[in-house]
Amino acid sequence: MTSTGTGGGRAVSGHDGEPHRDGLGGRLNWLRAGVLGANDGIVSTAGLVVGVAGATSAAGAILTAGVAGLVAGAVSMALGEYVSVSSQRDTERALLRKERAELAAFPDVELDELAGLYEAKGLSQATARQVAVELSASDAFAAHADAELGIDPHALTNPWHAAGASALAFTLGSLLPLAAIALPPPAGRVPVTFAVVLLALAVTGWLSARLGSAPPARAITRLVFGGAAAMAVTFAIGQLVGTAVG
Question: What would the pLDDT profile of 12-39 be if each residue is shown by its tens digit?
C-alpha cells in the first residue's frame, strides 16, 4: 500500500546521546512549507506593488494594491492548504477504517502480512514473525497502520493548522515588500524594494536548502533570478499600462 504520512513524536535513542524523533521529517516538511509560503508572499506581493509603482507614483494606490494582494493571497493559500490537507486526511481515515476492519475480520492473515512486511525489509523469517507478534500484542492497529500505510493514527494532520500556518507564512512574507515600497521616498521605492526583496529571497533560498540538505547556491540562484525577473516584468508592464491609460 502507498505511504501517505509520517509517524508521531515518539523519542528513540540515537548515537552519541542524540535524540531521534519519529516526527522529525514531518516537522521539517512543515518548516519547508512555511519557508515556501513566505517566499510566495514575498514574490507575489513584490511583483504586485512594483508593477503598480511602474504605472503610478501615488502611494495610496500602491499600498492599496499591496494590501489587497496580501489579503487575497493569504486567503487563497489558506483555502488551498485546507482543501489539500482535508483531502489527505479523509484518505488516511478511509485507509485506517479499512485496516481496522481487516484486522477484526482476518487477524491471522493480517499477522502473516505484517510479518511478511518486516521480512521484506531484511529481517529473517523467524525474527520478522517475532517482531510482528510482539507489536501486535502491544497495539496491532498502530503496528499495521505504520508498517502498511506509513500513518500514525494518533497524529493525523490538522487542516486548520495547515491553513493557518500557510496564511501566516504568506502574510509575513508579504509585509516585507509592503514596508520596502512604503517607507522610502518616491524616487527610491522601486530600487529599495528590489534590493530588499532579492536579499530576502536569498535568505529563504538558503533556509530551504538547509532544511532539505541541498546545496544552497543553486536554491539561492533560482529564487533570486526568478524574483528579479518577476519584478522586472511586472514593473515594465506597469509602465506600459500606465503610459497607455495615463
Answer: 444 444 444 445 555 666 676 778 888 8
